[in-house]
């Protein structure tokens, strides 16, 4: 009975299932990146969807190859992505808050505004905006000087 | 061509559609952080395509490419974030 099972076919079917599930998650993440209204919501969609999709695709490949070396490399890639994706998302989200990327108008910001005031993030501005304001101030000074003369 | 290879090619086509959608967001993204996150998804999609290509050609050497690419994508997004984060008081 056990000899009659075609193990290559079983491996192929399980691998195909995992890979199709992962690709569907990647497609959902891409559609979310295109359709969501706000930078922060888009970032959350990408971080979760693409990490899960990539993990499922890699697991499908590890099941198909059926070797310890390949499994080790696949686990290394899954570990790298699941460590680095939240860190990168956190850093980019913090940068976006400090650069005053606008929120969606339906976002509930009641508690977050208190955090912004507490951390004095309102006093920080990005370098480009700093140069812009400096140029504006210099122009005003020039105008005032022109008026006096 | 077996049904296994056909399934893998279908998965590759779907990942290519993902790359196309990400490229649209990369083009119309209103701010720079939008483009950085689109770049993140680019890297993830390319890793998926490399993995499926590895399975299609039975050549295990391409897995190393996926591993290096996952680390370099992290470095790219982090360096972009620190480039945007030049804060002056």
UniProtKB/TrEMBL annotation, chain B:
Any Pfam family: MrpF_PhaF
Transmembrane spans: 6-24, 36-53, 65-85
Domain of life, per lineage: Bacteria
Membrane topology: Multi-pass membrane protein
Keywords: Cell membrane, Membrane, Transmembrane, Transmembrane helix, Transport
Principal cellular location given in the protein's record: membrane
Keyword Cell membrane set for record: yes
UniProt xrefs under InterPro entries: MrpF/PhaF-like (IPR007208)
GO terms, molecular function: sodium:proton antiporter activity
Localization: Cell membrane
GO cellular component, one term: plasma membrane
Annotated family: Belongs to the CPA3 antiporters (TC 2.A.63) subunit F family.
Protein name stated in the entry: Cation:proton antiporter
Species this chain originates from: Pontibacter flavimaris
Lineage per the UniProt record: Bacteria, Pseudomonadati, Bacteroidota, Cytophagia, Cytophagales
């Amino acid at each position: 009975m056990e000899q009659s099972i075609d193990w290559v076919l079983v491996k192929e079917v399980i691998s195909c299932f995992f890979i199709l599930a992962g690709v569907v998650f990647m497609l959902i993440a891409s559609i979310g990146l295109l359709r969501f209204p706000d930078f922060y919501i888009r970032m959350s969609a990408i971080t979760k969807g693409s990490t899960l999709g990539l993990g499922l695709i890699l697991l499908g490949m590890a099941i198909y190859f059926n070797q310890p070396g390949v499994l080790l490399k696949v686990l290394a890639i899954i570990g790298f992505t699941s460590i680095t994706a939240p860190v990168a998302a956190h850093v980019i989200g913090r940068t976006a808050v400090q650069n005053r990327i606008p929120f969606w108008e339906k976002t509930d910001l009641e508690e977050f505004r208190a955090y912004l005031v507490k951390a004095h993030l309102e006093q920080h501005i990005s370098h480009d905006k700093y140069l812009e304001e400096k140029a504006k101030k210099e122009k005003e000074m020039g105008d005032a000087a022109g008026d006096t003369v | 061509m077996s049904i296994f290879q056909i399934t893998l090619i279908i998965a590759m086509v779907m990942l290519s559609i993902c790359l196309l959608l990400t490229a649209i967001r990369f083009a119309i993204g209103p701010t720079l952080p939008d483009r950085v996150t689109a770049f993140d998804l680019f890297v993830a999609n390319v890793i998926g395509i490399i993995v499926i290509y590895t399975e299609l050609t039975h050549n295990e050497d391409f897995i190393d490419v996926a591993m290096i690419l996952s680390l370099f994508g992290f470095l790219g997004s982090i360096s972009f974030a620190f480039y945007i984060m030049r804060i002056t008081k």
